Amino acid sequence: LSCTTQPYRLRVRPAVECGLLAQAWSPCRRRIVVRHEQVSLARIGCSSSTRSRRGSRVTASSNNGTADPEKLLPDTSGRGTYLLMLINVVVFLFDKLLHVPGMDLLYLSHAHPIWWQWITHQFCHASIDHISNNLFFLLTFGRLVEDTEGPIGLTMIYLLCGLGAALASYLASPHNIVSVGASGAVFGLFAVSVLTRLSSFSLRRLLESLVLGQFVVRQVMGELRSQAMGGLVVGGLQVSHLAHLGGALAGCVLVLLLHRLPKVEAVKGEIE
After folding, report:
1. How confident is the model at residue 77, as a pLDDT?
2. pLDDT tens column, 109-166
3. Given this model, what pLDDT does residue 58 score?
4. Global confidence as pTM
5. Minimum mean pLDDT range among 1-5, 46-50, 106-110, 250-254
6. Of 57, 65, 105, 155, which one is least surrounded by beta carbons within 10 A?
7. Measured at the alpha carbon of residue 83, what is the angle toward residues 118 and 100, in degrees to the nearest 5?
């Protein structure tokens, strides 16, 4: 089916690439096509609200109940990044400042790990310096990933890369220790932020990937050197370089897997 609205003057934004997770998981495979100052909603049902007042947005709903194609576009408000930061801060306050009993159950125990600790340890930190460094990189690279993948994609990438980092640390470290920190997840964001931009052929994305890539490569090489030298101890705590490398590797694997799935394309249009 197709339907066409009355002619309007249109301001059409360039096509925006959907994030990898939106491309992989969204059930909607439709596209808004703009031609000759008319909005043709190809193969999508058109509601009467399309003829709305000046300045309103073009809306459509699918006959089979699929979502508006505009929802495929990444949300760049940063709310996913700020939510992850807020959770990290709240957990730190409860643990290190308020000393709420039982917070140590959130740490990943290598001797007897409990299932939820594989996730919760990613929001725990050992010191103010530890959380400050991770929040800085989460703010910077979290926004970069959210810019392409949206808040849900960012959250999933954070958790999956943190899980990969924990697994690497668990397999290679002694079993008489506990693991805490978002560093592994952050290193996953390092990798994803660069690789998703390398997959684009736009000049802007390529420039971003060059600037980000040289920083990420230096970080990864530094972790490899530190691991080869026996590891660093900061503030009396052993740094898990393998967890950092495991998080970066998980980010690379995640991007490669998602690139093999079908892609979705979306175009935005607005009525003036």
Report:
1. 75
2. 999 999 999 999 999 999 999 999 999 999 999 999 999 899 999 999 999 999 999 9
3. 37
4. 0.71
5. 46-50
6. 65
7. 60
User: Is position 244 annotated as part of the catalytic site?
Assistant: yes
Q: Are 205 and 266 in contact (CB under 8 A)?
A: no
Measured CA to CA, the distance from residue 212 to residue 140 in angstroms comes to 11
The 3 state secondary structure assigned to 21-65 is HHHHHCCCCCCCEEECCEEECCCCCCCHHHCCCCCCECCCCCCCC
CB neighbourhood size of 218 (10 A): 10
Output phi, psi for 178, to 5 deg.
-125, 155
Residue 175 annotated as catalytic: no
Q: Round to whole Å and give the CA distance between 218 and 99.
A: 37
Residues 6+ apart with CB under 8 A from 212: 144, 190, 193, 194, 197
Residue 185's nearest CA partner among 164, 170, 215, 168 is 164
Distance CA 136, CA 142 (A): 10
Using alpha carbons, select from 238, 80, 244 the residue that is nearest to residue 168. 244
3-state secondary structure of 161: helix
What is the residue whose two structure tokens read 């929001």?
Answer: 123
Please tell me which residue in 179, 183, 193, 209 is annotated as part of the active site.
183
Q: How many CA atoms lie within 13 A of 229 on its CB side?
A: 11
Report how far residue 272's alpha carbon sits from residue 54's, in angstroms, rounded to the nearest whole number.
6
The catalytic position among 110, 130, 241, 244 is: 244
Q: Is residue 153 within 8 Å of 185, Cβ to Cβ?
A: no
What is the distance of C-alpha 247 from the center of its chain? Answer: 13
